[in-house]
Amino acid sequence: MESDAKITTAIVISCVVAATGGLMFGYDIGISGGVTSMHDFQREFFPSVAKHDGSKQSNYCKYDNQGLQLFTSSLFLAGLVATLFASHTTRRLGRRLTMVMAGSFFNIGVIFNGAAQSLAMLIVGRILVGCGVGFANQAVPLFLSEIAPTRIRGGLNILFQLNITIGILFANLVNFCTNKISPWGWRLSVSLGGVPGALFTAGALFLVDTPNGLIERGRLEEAKVVLKKIRGNNSVDTEFNDIVRASRNANAKEVKHSFRNLLHRRNRPQLVVAVLLQTFQQLAGINAIMFYAPVLFTILGFKTDASLYSAVITGAVNALSTLVSVYTVDRVGRRMLLLEGGVYMFLSQMAIAVVFRIKVTDEAEDLGHGWAIMVVVMVCTFVSSFAWSWGPICWLIPSETFPLETRSAGQSVSVCANLLMTFVIGQSFLSMLCRLKHAIFAFFSAWVVVMSLFVLFFLPETKNVPIEDMTKTVWKKHWFWKRFMNDEDNHLIANQ
């Protein structure tokens, strides 16, 4: 039985290699905020921002520039579009080849960014990097959820998020060092994104595809061989038959309209939960802080070096805290971590709002030593709470809850929701900060309350449930969602 599956070398290597896709995403998140705060980068591409250094302009509005925000957010708009195409490739070509394509797009984009001579070339590079991120975010969580044994599925899936946090930390360290290299330090920062990109692409070439993906494409014998390899024994008939049965019940090989099938009544609970979790994740404000941490610290009066150093501290806390989720998610469950994380996120954001209200005025002034330490501690508290709760679990739950016939499309819609909201926040945060000032953090805190209430009342627990048994074990037994779980749509799916 699958519950008796060993943690084999093949599983560990496959999951570690696949999860390095998170390094690409994380590095780009971390690199953006640091590069946009570098004077050499501003002078070359955004001179209107650079010329305000030392001026009397409102401290809150110093970086309110749509072009500067587009540099950060264009990646996510491109990723949103790319993940729709990635849904097709994961279903038709498999998870592994989709990951190879992701790495290839990312590496080409890095070359464009490192060699950029104009804003247009810079944006083209960001779009290509975004395509890589969209393909990776579509394929990697699916790969990890499908290949992992049930009892450790959550922890292995969160390796993706862990690598995102490691990528952010790596980027912050790079920015701190390259800021001292004038005038081409920023080029080195963006070019080093090729390191995680090359690691991911090379590793993906040697991975096996998941048994679920192979069965979905009708390659049953190959799927059984792979399943024996990754489980470490030949007694895989029960798990294999469960996957085949799920595939045949869904008629997965024949489904040509998986996006349309998402709208069937029986698929609405998974769809609603996936979209709302990804939307809430961004409305909590995490990427506003992670993208623009150096900018925020500069607004608070930190010098450039000090702001980048503080971002390094934030990145380290982010990476270390994600390890907590790896250890606890399959023990205490998804819901408990989300609820506990929400409490600490709310309190820390409100504290940041209070400090901004009291100490940050329209003129640039240095914070006192004590206030500065408090701000860094509160930011780290927020980042830490997010890193072991809403950060990884919002990627985990969609990848494990959709039935096989809509799993690829469902993951695609989930990624689209995340990237759309990431684009909105990335493109609007600095403008919102200029207008709302300290109230922007109260705005994010209010959303933390809303999303915590959603988890409390509407999110079922999925720990220790086999991925193909989610419908009958989780959704059909939930007090609210069970009303959607009937079989009236099955014949419609089979006849698409």
From TrEMBL:
GO cellular component: membrane
Gene Ontology molecular function, alphabetical: monosaccharide transmembrane transporter activity; symporter activity
Keywords linked to the UniProt accession: Membrane, Sugar transport, Symport, Transmembrane, Transmembrane helix, Transport
One Pfam short name: Sugar_tr
Membrane topology: Multi-pass membrane protein
Cited InterPro entries: MFS_dom, MFS_STP/MST-like_plant, MFS_sugar_transport-like, MFS_trans_sf, STP/PLT_plant, Sugar/inositol_transpt, Sugar_transporter_CS
Domain Major facilitator superfamily (MFS) profile: 14-463
Location relative to the cell: Membrane
Transmembrane domains' residue ranges: 7-27, 67-85, 97-116, 122-144, 156-174, 186-208, 271-302, 308-329, 336-358, 370-391, 412-433, 439-459
Family the entry assigns: Belongs to the major facilitator superfamily. Sugar transporter (TC 2.A.1.1) family.
PANTHER family: MAJOR FACILITATOR SUPERFAMILY (MFS) PROFILE DOMAIN-CONTAINING PROTEIN, SOLUTE CARRIER FAMILY 2, FACILITATED GLUCOSE TRANSPORTER
Designated name of the protein: Major facilitator superfamily (MFS) profile domain-containing protein
Species of provenance: Eleusine coracana subsp. coracana
